[in-house]
Design brief:
- The structure holds two protein chains of two kinds.
- Chain A has a domain of 314 residues: ABC transporter transmembrane region fold, CATH 1.20.1560.
- Helices cover 64% and strands 9% of the residues of chain A.
- Chain A has a six-stranded mixed beta sheet with strand order 6-7-8-3-9-10.
- The longest helix of chain A is centred in the middle third of the chain and has 53 residues.
- The two termini of chain A are 39 Å apart.
- Chain B folds into two domains: 334 residues, ABC transporter transmembrane region fold; 179 residues, Rossmann fold.
- Chain B is 65% helix and 10% strand.
- Chain B is built from 23 helices and ten strands.
- The radius of gyration of chain B is 38 Å and the shape is elongated.
- Classes of the chains: A alpha/beta, B alpha/beta.
- At the A-B interface, helix 3, helix 4, helix 6, helix 8 and helix 9 of A face helix 2, helix 5, helix 7, helix 8 and helix 9 of B.
Amino acid sequence: MGYDEQEYSQKFSLRTWKRLLPFLSPYKKAFALMLCFNCLTAFMDVLFPLFQRYAVDEFIEADSLSGIWIFAAFYLCVILTQTLSVLGMGRNSMFIEMTVGRDMRREVFTHLQTLSFSYYNVTPVGYILSRVMSDTMKIAGIIGWALPDVIWAVVYLCSALVSMLLLNWRLALVVMVIVPLIALVTAYFQGKILAWNRRVRKLNSRIMGAFNEGITGAKTSKTLVIEHDNSESFRRLTGEMYESGVRATRVRAVYVPLVLFLSTMAVAAILVRGGSLSLDGLIELGTLSAFTTYAVGIFEPVQLVAEYIAEFISIQASIERVTGLLDTEPLVKDSPEVIEKYGDSLHPKPENWEPIRGDIEFRDVTFRYPDGGEDVLSHFNLKIPAGTTVAIVGETGAGKSTLVNLACRFFEPTSGQILIDGQDYRERSQLWLHSSIGYVLQSPHLFSGSVRENIRYGRLDATDAEIEAAARAVSADRVVERLENGWDSDVGEGGDRLSTGEKQLISFARAVLADPRIFVLDEATSSIDTQTEQLIQDAIEHILKDRTSFLIAHRLSTIRRADLILVVHDGRIVEQGTHRELLLRRGYYHELYSRQFAEESSAKVLQ
Amino acid sequence: MTTETKLTRGGKAALIGRFLRGVWGYFVLGLLFAMLGMAFNALAPQIIRLTVDSILGSEEANLPAWLLGLLGFEELRAAPYRALWIAAAAVAVSAALRAVCGYGQRVSLAKGSEGFVKGIRDALFAHIQSLPFEWHTAHQTGEMIQRCTSDVEVIRNFVCNQLVEVARTLFLMALYLSIMFSMNARLSLFVVLFVPVTGLSSWLFYRRIASRFKAADEAEGELTTMVQENLTGVRVVRAFGRERYEIDKFNGKNDGYSQLWIKLGHVLSLFWASGTLLTSSQVFVTIIAGTVEAVNGDLTLGGFLVFVSYSSSLAWPIRSLGRVLAEMSKAGVSIDRVGYILNSEPERERGLALEPPMTGDIEFSHVSFGYEGGEVLHDVSFTVPAGSTFAILGGTGSGKSTLVHLLDRLYDLGEGQGQISIGGVDIRDIDRSYLRRSIGLVLQEPFLFSRTIAENISAARPGAAESEIRRAAHIACVDESITEFAEGYGTMVGERGVTLSGGQKQRVAIARMLMQDAPVMVFDDSLSAVDAETDAKIRAELEKNLGSSTVILISHRITTLMQAQRILVLSDGRVADIGTHEELISRPGIYRDIYDIQMSSDDRLLVGEEGENHGI
């Protein structure tokens, strides 16, 4: 996930925070509770020094223990209230963090299911993932925990000040001097600390990268005999880390003791001022002791608020990232009329869907990719009767997927029409078309879970017998035989416990189970052992029967079988026809074919 | 993966000790500062006590006589307003000293901790570089990186935070409790009673909750995996119209994860609340019992204030001590995991480490070799004459890459597996680095480092002149492509820079190899991603510049192979045929079959089509 984070604004922006309101408003009750609990806790915290004061003045100074039981009972009540309040606060905060986070993740994830391929084509997965997961968690964490902390700090600060003013306003003024001082010092250091932390984080990810390279590049390093150089440059990197780590600590090492020092200075000031007042008989000793406790206790909330201001500003970036994603509009959208009749992808109305035969027609289609500068198709016309097999050939990166993307409505034509069974497909819902398409990818994608679950993805209500029949039809049952737990074997994350060939067979079975009218096969180039290769060839043959199909093909055997071959070069269709016609033309297809033929045949001889 | 041996307790300590060697002084210094700081911290309440008792009140000053004399205490009592100023100044000075100690403590510990972790990282990196190739193929990259990063972080936390924290808390308790006991033993007993309760309850709690934290972490992992799979498989999701299904699945996991934490929140809140209860109760007991003691005359008012202050300062550290102790057990596993890497056997020089001239004939004699899965090469013998170009033709799994691995001593032949020699010297007797430096090797799927292109090309000769780098790039026919990049040779490769095509990578790797100026060069199918024209161009350039080097070419392309003086046909790990191009096409065999296919006229293609229809 090596994308550089954008730098976002460093100023507080109310507009950004307002975007969070819809996520917070369902939990008004919890936020009211949050306010209650935190006020309560803060009040109790302010009460504690007063008990100390009472003990000093009414018992110790008065030299009498009368009434101490009532005092103790009161004190215990406050402790119990405090305990219950902390209990409620913790539960409530966790509830808010988790529900707000959950709702945001749900919203983002649901929105992602509607975004177009053009979005996925240009956005790295890691980038999206960090929005769904870490950004939402950061925001929810701040709402759940930092917000109540700030409420507590503000309430504590205010009530402590009131309490001090009531006890002795002259002494209260002395303490109040340190409040802005601590706030200023914190604000000054906070910026520096954040900057250093960022630097240390970046170095950390560089060290991780270096380890990665040191391990994956081990063979190359050995052959070049540069192990020593590598270790040297790694040592330089960790040296940089050492410097930054120590310097970052230096900043903190000045800041924390300084704040503590300031609050002790307040104690010293109380000693002088309060002491003289006491000598003059203007203040009780108990009050004096309560003041020293307040002076020590007050620096924490001040520091907390100052620190959280920086944190609240830095979390704005996360909010902007999440709302930015939610604001991204899908490029391919069903019109309101279509949704009205056929339903959208989340609430389909399959009872209104017309059955699909599989005739596809490109009528005067011009197309350019949203991020591309020039038309890759212009005024293109093509009729594909139901049941036709169309092969698309060309070099890697020549743009072979374009036609398929259009036919499947992953993209829509810039101008012109694409007709399915004689109807412009924009007059139908996306899901109507998609539920009739079978798609097998070049690098077959499986989901974590069992083999059975993966095949069932093709038709969710399929019985086990139907699943097994579909698998048998494409020889995927041979894969299952080899697995320890048979149909219930876990395929691993992304299917990585299976070989590419095995994954491909499973994904064929998945497509067969779906029994689509239109079939797309993006064929693998990677070398698969001969045995599997033969199985795959048979599977393809089985699947293509009676379906309209697009083959993005590399293997000659597949290409030759097609009813129509489209040859793509530099993003354009340069030739089209049957295998024989194209060969006789001795053009680009001839060249491609000869090369491929030589390679495949050589490989066969060498096996 | 095979089960790894675990370190004994002593082995773990030795591992930690090894990395503390250069930095333990910082830890000692840091702890000394910490102790000094705590002592100064304990001073302020004592000054307040003295002030309250003997300046504002009329108690006898409870201090040694010499100290009272030094302070001129009797005079001060006579002038209480001035005495207050001096007391305040004393508080300020002790606070300032504590701040200085706080700074010293943090900086010393940071130096110790950063130095400690740098030591581990450097040792890990260097050791991984020195581990045999076999080790690298046997272990998963992700897993090893995790050990080098997260596990190292756990160890750092153990040594630099947890151990230090335990030492500090123990000292704090010793200091405060001893002062308290010297002031009033009975009252101190009340405080001491709380220590085991507070500490133990937190220790027990964190031991028991560990599994629930793990479950919550796993749920998060599952949720992340699900999202990631949905995003990478977006085409499958859309093509099958499974948006609703995916959202339902996501909601299930998302809700489950959130519920897990909400429930965990209930338990945690209970723990936090119990913490509040215990620590507040400790202060409560101190105040009530202290009041009784004071009223009974066993404690001065100032002494009472000191007790309350010390007792509050002790409460939370004891609480967190329990947590630290409970979490320390995690470190053992991490030390094992890191220790496993550091204790793996590095590449060792077994033989004589000779450095003979490398310009002789290369001879493979009766080489049989295999990996864990079984034998790959069976009794392979051939000779590559010095200064000649030698080609190898073979399919996937024929063992050609193994030949290269053996020649470069990425694997060593064992007893009875035959012998490889250069100029008559067994390569096991040649210094490994010298051997590898003398053999330039280009792999089929070359690895480029995420550095600039220039740095990649000059990897084997850092600091080489730009003209040399460009010359190598020119021979490899990649100079032109490089100069087309905006930053030319300064362009970064990989994640943080441009992505090179397969062909470009191969050519940069060739340029990199050329910089080695090696007497032996091996091209392991290293032009497979380059089109035939460029292939020919590169070979022509190489021809001009190779000089007297011995060249071994592995390829599928007849046009490449036929340039060689001798061609070896490898099939299933055996020598199927060997000879010149003319010899090989004059007799039936794999080579001639392939020659026929690749050099055939176009008409045969259509015949091929007919053949396919008849089921070949």
